[in-house]
Recover the amino acids of this structure.
């Protein structure tokens, strides 16, 4: 059992983006929910990462497998941080979430500490159990180790 500093306890967590922007899963997963094969309420769900501005990325509703790259021995996520941007999420998706039914962790990404802080403030209006700063997503194109000081600045800005 994992317990966060705010008292939220959980045993299982769904990785960032695995169950979409609302924790209910992607449209192609909905039949699994309807058939009760997949129950998102069993997990604390990290929503798909949001950026300050919308990103087109590689995920397309008409070709959901187009963002998967086959590699020797498996597959690679190549979604490219497709997302509507935080303002759109806050207007359209956030008001519909029910974190009492599906505990959600917000996930945000920006190379600009002030944007991270603003996004964290925007997410305070929603009943999220935690916040993830996605500083090491392989889709960012940034070198994590070379950008460590900026990451520290971002974390401090969010904490403040």
């Amino acid at each position: 059992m994992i317990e966060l500093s705010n008292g939220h306890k959980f045993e299982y967590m769904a990785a960032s983006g695995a169950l979409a922007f609302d924790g209910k899963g992607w449209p192609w997963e909905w039949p699994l929910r309807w058939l009760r094969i997949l129950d998102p309420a069993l997990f604390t769900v990290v929503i798909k990462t949001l950026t300050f501005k919308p990103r087109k990325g590689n995920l397309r509703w008409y070709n959901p497998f187009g963002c998967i790259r086959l590699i020797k021995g498996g597959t690679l996520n190549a979604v490219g941080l497709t997302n509507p941007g935080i303002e759109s999420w806050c207007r359209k998706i956030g008001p519909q979430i029910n974190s009492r039914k599906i505990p959600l962790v917000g996930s945000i990404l920006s190379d600009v500490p002030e944007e991270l802080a603003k996004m964290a403030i925007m997410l305070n209006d929603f009943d999220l159990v935690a916040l993830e700063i996605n500083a090491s997503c392989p889709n960012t194109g940034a070198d994590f180790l070379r950008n460590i000081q900026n990451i520290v600045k971002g974390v401090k800005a969010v904490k403040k």
